[in-house]
Amino acid sequence: MATYKYKLETLLTFRRNLEEQAHLKLVREQDILIGHKKRLEVLKSERVRIIQDLEERKKKRLQAALFSLYMNSIRSRERDIQVQMTMIESQKHVVEEARKALLEKVKERQIIEKAKERDHQNFLKEVLKEELKEHDEMAVLTFGSERV
Predict the structure, then answer these.
(1) What CATH class is the domain 9-109?
(2) What is the residue extent of each domain of the chain?
(3) How far apart are CA 131 and CA 74, in angstroms?
(4) Is the CB of residue 70 less than 8 Å from the CB of residue 121?
(5) Tens digit of pLDDT for each residue in 2-46?
(6) By C-alpha distance, which of 92, 90, 98 is closest to 25?
(7) Distance CA 39, CA 48 (A)
């Protein structure tokens, strides 16, 4: 019996590799997004901590210079929060593009795999056809030898 060998196996392997690379890129980009979100939470908690500290100090006498320092620190955190939110939005777009690229690679691989499956089914049909032909020939030979 003949063994099955798909002609486009190297292309299928190549497509699988491209899909795997796209998947790894998506994971990296998602990790970056998670890092940005964690940094945002840190900035927000720092801002809250500074405000709470300021409120505690306002209960006592607070020098104008120290008050100004607290206000500058709060404004600085707010700017950092805005920058971080912009980075998060930008990274969300990068993640979405990586997701789309992965989906495209999956579709490309699936097309080749479906073609391989069809080719394999055709191969099996041909093998069955050859086997039936051999059985028919053997039956004819056997029937013919019994008549003689």
Answers:
(1) mainly alpha
(2) 9-109
(3) 83
(4) no
(5) 788 999 999 999 999 999 999 999 999 999 999 999 999 999 999
(6) 98
(7) 14
